[in-house]
Specification:
With 430 residues, the protein is mainly alpha-helical. It has helices spanning 35-39, 75-81, 84-93, 99-111, 119-124, 132-146, 156-181, 195-204, 215-227, 235-244, 250-261, 269-280, 286-294, 315-330, 337-351, 353-357, 364-375, 382-402; strands spanning 2-11, 14-22, 29-30, 59-62, 67-70, 73-74. The strands form two sheets. A three-stranded antiparallel beta sheet has the order 1-2-3. Strands 4-5-6 form a three-stranded antiparallel beta sheet. The protein starts with a strand and ends in a 28-residue tail after the last helix. Bound molecules: acetyl coenzyme *A. Acetyl coenzyme *A binds next to α17.
């Protein structure tokens, strides 16, 4: 982080010098840490559109160019040549693993896939029709009650164990949330299967029959996990960092991240996007929907379009689109009406002046739902799958934050617009 330039801010004739920090990639950052002490002013940036809240070495996004790098490696290369557990290692430890390191890491993760048997009873406390995200927020938060020996955030060894537990157990928890919601028995994990194949097994196998995981579906599942692994300081990651800044335990922090991810403007968009495609139903209804999405008074947005950072094609969406074609081909889905609506909607939106001028491109959620639907997942499972895949990103950012000597509790300021001090009025005088 080189500091070579300065900015000068003038407030009522007083000049304040602010250092400018230069990152490896991306725009320079004006360092305002001492601004309040020097000038008695705060900065105002709702939604953090121009504010860097931390430094990080994990993920870089260039939204104008449509670039996403994990530890410097482009996402399209990782999606094509790597796989999820290798990407997990890369995000957690900063470098691609050797063969031995990868084998060791895979063994550790596969040995932690089971959850404490008593947690099964905890699941049974939820209503059968609970959304699997609601169950996940509760169960992941409850891990701090079951795994006390990995909640001391000041102990690097405990932090490591908590990381492994979360990455390993999240597919089990997501699959159990699904099985519970459809009234089927929980399927125990199978450690002889790959991470993605095991997840498909836990979701789709039943004790009464033998279930064979199709390797192409396992590959597609793995790719969905890889494409969602991390995305720098998005809302849920920032939530995890903010929760963790108080010293909260890792399971509580990740539960906070899951809660934030659930919203339709974030991870909940994959469910919302597919439901909207179904609501549109047929290609002839697309113009009507596009018209509504452009009219702010309707409150309708085209789900799966637009992104805070990408003002170009989301690089993950490109890979996801290819995967969608592969999976649908494998499953023999050619005339799926939802897919037809999606393709036509994409074509029209990419030519429409409103979407072009606002740089609204399809995001990763536009295509992931189509694949997950074809694989047999209900829409309510789309966001839990995103959450399980993103867990490694949250954990990597959490670990990075805890090893930062500059760590402070996160405490934003405000622009107060309420009443000034006034005297209390007794109830009989109001
Ligand atoms: N449909 C119609 N108009 C849109 C859309 C959309 N999907 N997205 C943005 N706009 C318009 C806004 O109305 C606004 O118009 P204006 O400038 O005339 O006021 C302009 O584009 C900018 O939109 P903002 O909401 O200010 O952009 P922001 O960066 O805050 O929001 C967001 C990004 C939340 C993703 C937004 O594009 C959206 O709601 N998209 C639909 C939901 C979605 O797909 N979310 C998934 C995000 S990716 C992820 O989390 C993995």
């Amino acid at each position: 982080m080189a500091e070579t330039k300065n900015a000068t801010l003038t407030i009522e004739g007083k000049m304040i010098d602010l250092p400018i920090l230069s990152p490896t990639n991306g725009p320079d950052v004006v360092d305002i840490r001492k601004l309040y002490a020097q000038a008695n002013v705060f900065t105002y940036d709702p939604g953090f559109t121009s504010t860097a809240a931390c430094d990080s070495t994990i993920t870089f996004i260039d939204g104008d160019e449509g670039i996403l790098l994990h530890r410097g490696y482009p996402i399209d290369q990782l999606a094509a040549q790597s796989h999820y557990l290798e990407v997990c290692y890369l995000l957690l430890y900063g470098a691609l693993p050797s063969k031995d390191e990868l084998a060791g890491f895979t063994k550790i993760i596969s040995r932690h896939t089971m959850i404490h048997e008593q947690m099964h009873y905890f699941f049974r406390g939820f209503r059968r029709d609970s959304h699997p995200m609601a169950t996940m927020v509760g169960v992941v938060g409850a891990m701090s009650a079951f795994y006390h020996d990995s909640t001391d955030v000041n102990d690097p060894h405990q932090r490591e164990i908590a990381s492994h537990r979360l990455i390993a157990k999240m597919p089990t928890i997501a699959a159990m949330a699904y099985k519970y919601s459809i009234g089927q028995p929980f399927m125990y994990p199978r450690n002889d299967l790959s991470y993605a194949a095991n997840f498909l097994h836990m979701c789709f196998a039943v004790p009464a029959e033998t279930y064979h995981v199709d390797p192409i579906l396992a590959k597609a599942m793995d790719r969905i996990f890889t494409l969602h692994a991390d995305h720098e300081q998005n809302a849920s990651t920032s939530t995890v960092r903010l929760a963790s800044s108080s010293g909260a335990n890792p399971f509580a922090c990740i539960a906070a991240g899951i809660a934030c991810l659930w919203g339709p403007a974030h991870g909940g968009a994959n469910q919302a996007a597919l439901e909207q495609l179904r609501e549109i139903g047929t290609v002839d209804r697309i113009p009507e929907f596009i018209k509504m999405a452009k009219d702010k008074t309707t409150g309708v947005r085209l789900m799966g379009f637009g992104h805070r950072v990408y003002k170009n094609f989301d690089p993950r969406a490109k890979v996801m689109k290819e995967s969608a074609d592969e999976v649908l081909e494998l499953l023999g889905v050619h005339n799926n009406p939802t897919l037809q609506v999606a393709k036509e909607l994409e074509r029209i939106a990419l030519e429409d002046e409103y979407f072009v001028s606002k740089k609204l491109y399809p995001n990763v959620d536009f295509y992931s739902g189509i694949i997950l639907d074809a694989m047999g997942f209900p829409t309510s499972m789309f966001t839990p799958i995103f959450a399980l895949a993103r867990t490694v990103g949250w954990i990597s950012q959490w670990k990075e934050q805890l090893s930062d000597p500059q760590l402070k509790i996160g405490r934003p300021r405000q622009l107060y617009l309420g009443e000034s001090m006034r005297d209390y009025v007794p109830i009989d005088q109001r």
